[in-house]
Structure formats: structure tokens, C-alpha cells
């Protein structure tokens, strides 16, 4: 797992470092402080070449002007245009990014104890991808806020049972306990007259219905668990994890998710804007012996708002914040 993460000259972050990371890392902070930038840094650090290539449209919307928009995205990865490049460092490896010849961008992971092996990725202004080497043991899954293709989610579900039938039962139990208590079973099917296979839901009311008619919370939760059980990532990134979840069900959602992450040996990094989500994660984790939860907080310095500072805190600090009904933040940062 990633236990330390440092970003230097990356997007709006001059130099931030998180230490003592856990299995569940919830990235929090105000607007426009760099929460999504942390996820983008992790894609560059651990992602496949294709995930790196798709990064401009993974978490953000680009203006519809093609090459210019792509070039603008890569340029903004470096905090200051006067600086040569950025550096992302962790206990599992590092990556350097810089502008290369003729406007291309090069991302290089130096070899570190043979794992992960070095990889050099070059991206041209037109988005063309060049790969020098690629061996990637840190398999990464990424879920953005964008609506996923229902067919893709359904195909992932269909892969779960052949890999491990027990996990299909676990998925159904998790959805029943945290989202839909009426759920009896899920089936991958293509009824007559329908062009593609989808996951169908049995609520005990006769005809099964496609999962797309079950609401955002059900679809999002199904997608998360399908990613974990079918893709088997080592690291899972989720942008705005609270999306679609009703606050009263968040604690049950977190309990189920934390148990699955532990069982499947997956590390989670997720952003949230929701205080209810932060508190629900705390309540779900407070009696877990492995102490999985960390909050990764980004704040602007009081004396210099252009600078972002980072801190890591756990359930003890969150318990204090809840008790005194206050926000966990730096009240003042010395110069």
C-alpha cells in the first residue's frame, strides 16, 4: 500500500506531503484546494499508459477545441510555467513529468527496488501516446463523477462469478444491507427484444427490472463493487464518493465498503465535499481493529492563500471535531 505521498510543483500544489496513509483515505478540504489533483497525481504515479492518456477527460471537462484543450491541460500540470517539471514521490515509487521537445510531454517512473518497473510515457500535443516500457503491478481502478456506461458495469458483474462465486453473493448482500433491502438477486440477462445484456434486479415483485431504473445510489454502489470484485485493483480512486447516497445510509455503506476493501486487499483514495460523509466514515471505522481510516486535508494558508498545506489525521481527531462540532482545519499556519 501507499503509506507516504508527496507532490511538488504539481498543478496548484507547491509542496504537500501526506504521511501514515491508511487503507481508506478520504481527501477533504474547501473548494479549489486541489482534492482532484491528488487523484490525478495517483493516476500518473500508478496508472497504465492508457489511463494517463485519458487523464485530461477523466475528472475534468475540456473545452471543445481539440488539440489546444489537451495542450492546456498538460501545461497546467506544472504549477508555474517557469519551472521545468513536477515530481510525485511515494514509498512505492515516483514519477517525474516535464515538457519535452516539440511540445511533447514525458512522464518517467524511475525503477525503485524493481517495483514498479520503470515506464516512460510520451504524449504529443495531438494526444498520441508513446510507451518505452510498461510493467505495472499496481493495478489501478478509477471512478469519476461521470455516468458510466451501463453495459460496461453489467459486463463487469458478469465476470465476478467465474472469478469467485462467493463474491457475487457478497455483492448482493452489500447492496441489500446498504441500499435496497428488498433486493433478492441480480442477474445478467438479455430479455427478448433487448439489444444488449444488462444487470437485472429482482425485488420480489414479479418482473425483474434493469439496474438503471434503480436510482443513482444503487447504480453507483453496484459499479464500485463490480470494480473491486471483477477488476481486482490494488488501488481504487473515487471522485466525490458521496454522490447519490442519502446521508442516513452512509454509515452502512461505509461499513460494507471498508470490510470489502480489507477482504480484497484494496487501498482507497476518495474525495468528498460532504461533512455527513466524513462523519459516517468515522462512525463506520471507530470499532474496526485495523484502524483503516485517514483524512487527507488540504487548506489554504491564512497568511498566504496562494499556498496549500496538507495534513493527515485519523479517527481520534475526527471524534474531537464531531464532539465540538467544528471543522478540522488549520486555524493558522506560521510563515
Brief summary:
The protein is of the alpha+beta class. The chain is 33% helix and 25% strand.
Helix content: 25-40%
Mean pLDDT: 85
Structural class: alpha+beta
Total strand segments: 16
Beta-strand percentage range = 15-25%
- What about the largest sheet? 7 strands, antiparallel
What is the topological layout?
Blueprint: E1 5-10, E2 13-18, E3 24-29, H1 35-46, H2 49-53, H3 55-58, H4 67-75, E4 85-90, E5 93-99, E6 105-109, E7 119-123, E8 129-131, E9 140-143, H5 150-163, H6 165-178, E10 185-189, E11 198-202, E12 209-210, H7 216-231, E13 235-238, H8 250-264, E14 267-271, H9 275-285, E15 293-300, E16 308-313, H10 315-323
Parallel strand pairs: 3-14, 3-15, 9-13, 13-14
Antiparallel strand pairs: 1-2, 1-4, 4-5, 5-6, 6-7, 7-8, 10-11, 11-12, 15-16
Structure, explained:
- The protein is α+β, with helices and mostly antiparallel strands and 335 residues long.
- The protein is 33% helix and 25% strand.
- It has helices at residues 35-46, 49-53, 55-58, 67-75, 150-163, 165-178, 216-231, 250-264, 275-285, 315-323; strands at residues 5-10, 13-18, 24-29, 85-90, 93-99, 105-109, 119-123, 129-131, 140-143, 185-189, 198-202, 209-210, 235-238, 267-271, 293-300, 308-313.
- The strands form 3 sheets. Strands 2-1-4-5-6-7-8 form a 7-stranded antiparallel β-sheet. A 6-stranded mixed β-sheet has the order 9-13-14-3-15-16, sandwiched between helices.
- It is globular, with a radius of gyration of 21 Å.
